[in-house]
Structures are given as structure tokens and as C-alpha cells.
Amino acid sequence: MSIFSESDLPLDVHHGEMLTLADGTTVRFESNGEAKNVMINDGFEPATTLYPGNDYVVETGQGSYQMTCEFGDCMHIKKV
């Protein structure tokens, strides 16, 4: 499993990869068809399910991070 850090942003994360933000928050996803179940930290329940063209913003003490996805095995993450 590849693990990326906030210094790698903006980033395209693929299934099985994880992003660790500056405050320790982790972000990963599992594919559910074309949808992406976004997991925050160690939880197994998705914080949200992203569909192509939708976005989701995670707020931490270090800032806001936007996640978007398209068709395929990839989720885009950037600091906003």
C-alpha cells in the first residue's frame, strides 16, 4: 500500500493507497462500481460515497481538502 503525505498534494490516489494529512487524518477509498466509498481515519464506514462529477470536502485543523472522482480507479485530492 502506498502512503502519501500532504506535501504530495494535489494528488491522484488509487485504490489501495492512502493520504496522511499534516494533522494525522488519513484518507483512502474503496471502489464500489464507479462510486468511491471515502474512508476517513481508521473507520470502515464511509464518510461519504463519491460519484463521478461530485465532490466532498474534509475539514481539519490544518485546512480544507476537496476530493473528486471520475470514472476509473482514481480519486483527486487537493487543498482548498
What does this protein look like?
It is a single chain. The chain has one domain. The mean pLDDT is 93. The chain is 0% helix and 54% strand. It has strands spanning 3-5, 11-13, 18-20, 26-32, 35-40, 48-50, 55-60, 63-69, 75-79. It contains no helices and 9 strands.
Spell out the key features of this protein:
mainly beta, about 80 residues, globular, 9 strands, 5-stranded mixed β-sheet
- Radius of gyration, rounded? 11 Å
Quickly count the domains: 1
Largest sheet: 5 strands, mixed
What is the count of helical runs? Answer: 0
Annotation, overall tally of beta strands = 9
Classification by helices and strands: mainly beta
Low-confidence spans: none
Strand order of the largest sheet: 1-3-4-5-6
Q: What is the 3D shape?
A: globular
Oligomer: single chain
Outline:
The protein is about 0% helix and about 55% strand.
